[in-house]
Amino acid sequence: MYMLKRTAxxxxxxxxxxxxxxxxxxxxxxxxxxxxxxxVIILDAGHGQNGEGGxxxxxxxxxxxxxxxxxxxxxxxxxxxxVHMTRPEQSHVLHPVRSSLINKWALQEVKNSRQAxxxxxxxxxxxxALQNDINEIDRLLKIVQSIIDxxxxxxxxxxxxxxxxxxxxxxxxxxxxxxEFQNDPVIRDxxxxxxxxxxxxxxxxxxxxxxxxxxxxxNTHTYTVNYYNSYSNEARSRQFGEQLLDNISKLGIRxxxxxxxxxxxxxxxxxxxxLVENGFHTNDQDRAKLSDDAFxxxxxxxxxxxxxxxxNKIEPGVLPEQKPDPKPQPETKTExxxxxxxxxxxxxxxLAEPLLLSTPEQCRMPKSFTVYKQQSFKSDKIASFSxxxxxxxxxxxNGWGLIDTYLGKYWVYIEEAAEKTENK
Length: 424
Ligand SMILES: [Zn+2]
Known about the structure:
The chain has twelve helices and 15 strands. The protein is an alpha/beta fold. Zinc ion (ZN) binds next to loops. Zinc ion binds next to loops.
């Protein structure tokens, strides 16, 4: 009996040891096999010294985000990745310098790949083409370096800096060349840039607003459509953003949405990139998490896992399917329908009189919603959006609100869809 018990205990111990060993092995194998070998991840810890970035109730965005970046870096390097930081320490780095660093690291990588090919070919035409590329990249690298060395003088020559409205600036031909080199699979399939932030509401602070948001570049964005509209990373960046927010939400920070944003760190290069707001530091629950070092360890692990998963899913050279253009699509109508709608349009929809709000109101739209050209379902549909907080400028008595979108100001039926989050 005693022997039997001992044998059973021994078997159980062996099983447990084997399970643990397998678990530990899987993690060690990830590291040893260098699952992220050959991948280049750029971490941009938002803001910096100089009183930049959000601060609230003892919390400092730029300090916390640098901490998170350092934790992510350590994990990624243990998985074999190359990691660059635009701000490796508590310092002040201008936006155009951050973008230029991304361009520099990406161009250098394309140059390295051309040089490697150069050694493998004996075909004279190919040799010439490769050498031309290398010479051109060297010329562009000098420009990029001149911006890093003296951003105030040189950034306005090449970047959309200082940011100009009404967004009709065209990209500089040399800067466009930089972007075109970055369309190379060497960059598209192997690079990822992540800008780390935490969010806040305007003053007065609205503590009820919480959750994480991801921004990425879009070719149809009002702010970039005239500037450069051939970013090759839109779908990739969005895919990563969706995955990341799903995973962050498992740590208790609510998924808000993946949206378009034309920030410097997304706009002034053509590397797959996201800007992440890791929760609202003006919300007590989110801030408590972001102020806890053990939570930041978990958050860094979520980043490392999501990045690994993202790269594992990439098929070299194959771009993910582009989602439907968020701009309104012309509806393909059969002829009778077309005639019908044309005759219908003769009777204009009855529009309720809008009231201009003296102070714009914030409204949380907890479900996906559609914006219309006018305050009527019969008017043109402009675009649909994922759940998010919107700012309402005008209202009608029958429940319509005029909100600001990246396409301009349009109407949404807010009466039932929205939870009001007005400032008290
Ligand atoms: Zn920020």
